[in-house]
Amino acid sequence: MILVMLRVMALSLLRDRAGLVLVFVLPPLVFIVFASVFAAGASGRLDVRASVVDQTDSADSRRLFDSLQRRLGGRLTRSPNAAALEDAIASGRVDAGLVLQGDLATAPTPVTVLIHPGRRTAGEVLTAQVNATAGQDLAELMLRRDVARLGPILDLTPAQIDRVTGASAGFAPPPPFVAQRVLSGGDPLLVYYAGAVSILFLMFTAMQGAMSLIDERTAGLRLRLGLSAGGVAPLLGGRMLWLTGLGVVQALVLFLVAALVYGVPLLTNLAAWAATAVCAAAASAGIALGLAAACNTREQAQPVSTFAFLILAAVGGSMAPRFLMPEALQTLGWLTPHAWVIEAYQTVLWRGLVNTTVFQAWTVLSSFAAAGFLAALWIEGRRRL
Questions:
Q1: Distance, CA of 96 to CA of 113 (rounded, Å)
Q2: 189 Cβ contact partners less than 8 Å away, ≥ 6 residues apart
Q3: Helix, strand or coil for residue 111?
Q4: Please, where are the H alpha helices in 211-334?
Q5: Where are the beta strands (DSSP E) in the chain?
């Protein structure tokens, strides 16, 4: 009997394509995403986007810029002034910044690293890259710094000579060479994770509600309801409105907890938060209705939606911060609603702005909602024929 049960269960799994995908495809895909994120972070090979304000424009500063540009793989740009650099860091266009001031060979702290309070890892990586660049690629500069520190000494002792000549062999710059300054504004990671968790559970909540569409179809209620209500559109429209409203309430509860317990500034821009919550809930409802319409049974819809939502969450930044991801994954994340929801909440609540990025996020999320709803309408209309 045991062998018979084993055979029955094995055949059942082999015939369930969605189950096979969930068991054998989803775990490796999620592993690849997390391995890409945390392997890069552990090795220090984060794809840090940085910008530089060069207030000296000297030969040494240009050499430092060129060396850092090579180390960062071309992800280093120039900013016109410190104010523009801080704005770029705060808006997320770059992860960290450098300000070069004074003579790099003699000034006490000629380099200042500007660090975003929510991306301290990026600032530490940039600091390490500056130190490594100065130590390995700017040996002559470090030699001059060391000599200047010795003062006007004409007769050097052997120990002093060893110290000076050692600078040309990978000399690590002294701590005063690089200073760090963390920008003000609190910890935006609280807003980040509030948005990330919100969109993650909005998807699953919407899918649970959308699967009633399958139940009604299976029981034969959909056809009778459709005939009495004048078609499929009113039925799907009612579900869309309900799931969107439910999602807004769910998001409100989560953000209220975040505001009361962790001080997330929900009241900073409440109207813009509400618009973002509506767009996020509508996008989740549309995607869920589209998936439910495409599936024939609950047994099929459950693993398919779980697979889709976990992949979207992993790539979109709901499971790990996007700024820790390799550049390719960060770019791919913009194809998910998660990345747009997180970016909109951060801009609206942490930065207190309603700018082009927020309008783009609302547009993209509304497009997800419309596309999902229209797909569900088309699929259910064809089923009726």
A1: 7
A2: 118, 321
A3: strand
A4: 212-219, 221-229, 232-262, 270-294, 298-316, 327-333
A5: 50-54, 76-78, 96-100, 111-115, 178-182
> What angle do the packed helices 337-345 and 356-384 form, to 10 degrees?
150
Identify the pLDDT of residue 20.
Answer: 62
Q: Which residues of 6-20 are buried (b: 16+ CB within 10 A; e: fewer)?
A: eeeeeeeeeeeebbe
**Angle between helix 298-316 and 337-345 (nearest 10):** 50
Token representation of residue 268: 């900073």
pLDDT of res. 174 = 46
| φ, ψ for residue 114, nearest 5 deg | -90, 125
Q: How many CB atoms lie under 10 A from the CB of residue 145? A: 24
Residue 183 falls in which region: left (phi positive, over 0), alpha (psi -120 to 50) or beta: beta
Instruction: Name the amino acid, one letter, at 298.
Output: R
CA distance 17 to 19: 5
Phi-psi region of 39 (alpha: psi -120 to 50; beta: other; left: phi over 0): alpha
CA proximity to 380, closest of 204, 223, 190: 223
pLDDT at 191: 85
Distance CA 19, CA 25 (A): 10
Q: How far is CA 66 from CA 78, 107, 208, in A?
A: 11, 20, 54
- Report how far Cα 11 is from the mean position of its chain's Cα atoms: 40
Rounded Cα–Cα distance for residues 199 and 202 (Å): 5
> Whose CA is closest to 376, among 240, 282, 267?
240
pTM exceeds 0.90, yes or no = no
Contact 111, 100 (CB under 8 A): yes
Q: What's the average pLDDT block by block, 10 residues per block, for the chain (385 residues)?
A: 59 64 60 55 62 84 84 84 83 82 71 81 80 63 55 50 46 58 68 88 90 76 52 82 92 89 84 96 95 86 86 88 79 93 90 89 97 91 66
Would strands 76-78 and 96-100 be described as parallel, antiparallel, or unpaired? unpaired
Instruction: State residue 173's pLDDT score.
Output: 45
Are residues 341 and 200 in contact, defined by beta-carbon separation less than 8 angstroms? no
